[in-house]
Design goal:
There is one protein chain. The protein is of the alpha/beta class. Helices cover 36% and strands 18% of the residues. The protein has a single domain, classed as Rossmann fold, CATH 3.40.50. A 7-stranded parallel sheet has the order 3-2-4-1-5-6-7, sandwiched between helices. Helix 1 crosses helix 8. Bound molecules: guanosine-5'-triphosphate and magnesium ion. Belongs to the SIMIBI class G3E GTPase family. UreG subfamily. One of its GO terms (cellular component) is cytoplasm. It is found in: Cytoplasm.
């Protein structure tokens, strides 16, 4: 999929009549792919799930997810974004929309599409046209001052995920400080502390997503 083409997409707010698109952003290595895998495991019995991975130079994440066997191979599409990973999820989302289209055509009755961004910095965020909901994942090993630094992911994401809590003692991070800082940045919005490898916290995120999906579908019927 090249950068320049005339792909037209008319934006429609999610009303339960198409797959709900879930953007997953966060710095390099914070656990985005591991989260997609863990959430898919929890949600796949009830929902039909597709995944789009944005990688900067490779299709590594697509390969990892396919090898894991968590979803059928044709449910996973890799997008290679080139040097500017944030452009592909914010300014020029055409490559991602093509992948959305491809998944929607290939899989009848698709419910959810996870869109993993290429690992980026704290300033990255999804275009609201691309993502109906926005999950942002950081990890404790990046330091407990990260929540205080702010940015759209930390402040405005629908769910902020603070991953790798198992590493906190090894990197001398105080989780209570991080919890308090997140609370200050986000007012009433959800923050979940996780170890996505062991599954800690994953159910809470899955339940939030399921509720959001059902809620919007019911709203549309009214
Ligand atoms: N200890 C620990 N390691 C984790 C956890 N979650 C992910 N990891 C590990 O962290 C590394 C990076 O995880 P990924 O899921 O690849 O992170 P990512 O955000 O997708 O990385 P990029 O796509 O390269 O930006 C992997 O080696 C994971 O196994 C966790 O909760 N605890
Ligand atoms: Mg990844």
């Amino acid at each position: 999929m090249g950068h320049h083409h005339n792909f037209s997409w008319s934006y429609r707010k999610f009303k339960g009549d198409r797959p709900m698109r879930i953007g997953i952003g966060g710095p390099v290595g914070s656990g985005k792919t591991a989260l997609v895998r863990a959430l898919s495991e929890v949600l796949r019995d009830k929902y039909k799930i597709g995944v789009i991975t944005n990688d900067i130079y490779t299709k590594e994440d697509e390969q990892i997810l396919k090898k894991s066997g968590v979803l059928p191979s044709h449910h996973i599409i890799g997008v290679e974004t080139g040097g500017c990973p944030h452009t592909a999820i914010r300014e020029d989302v055409s490559m991602n929309f093509e992948a959305v289209e491809e998944l929607t055509e290939a899989i009848p009755d698709l419910h959810l599409i996870f869109i993993e961004s290429g690992g980026d910095n704290l300033a990255a965020a999804f275009s609201p046209e691309l993502a109906d909901v926005f999950l942002y994942i950081i990890d404790v090993a990046q330091g407990d001052d990260i929540p205080r630094k702010g940015g759209p992911g930390i402040k405005q994401s629908d769910v902020l995920i603070v991953n790798k809590v198992d590493l906190a003692p090894h990197v001398r991070v105080n989780l209570n400080t991080m919890k308090e800082d997140c609370r200050k940045q986000r007012e009433n919005k959800l923050t979940v502390f996780t170890n996505v490898l062991s599954g800690e916290g994953v159910t809470e995120i899955a339940e939030w997503l399921a509720k959001e999906y059902q809620g919007r579908r019911e709203e549309a019927k009214r």
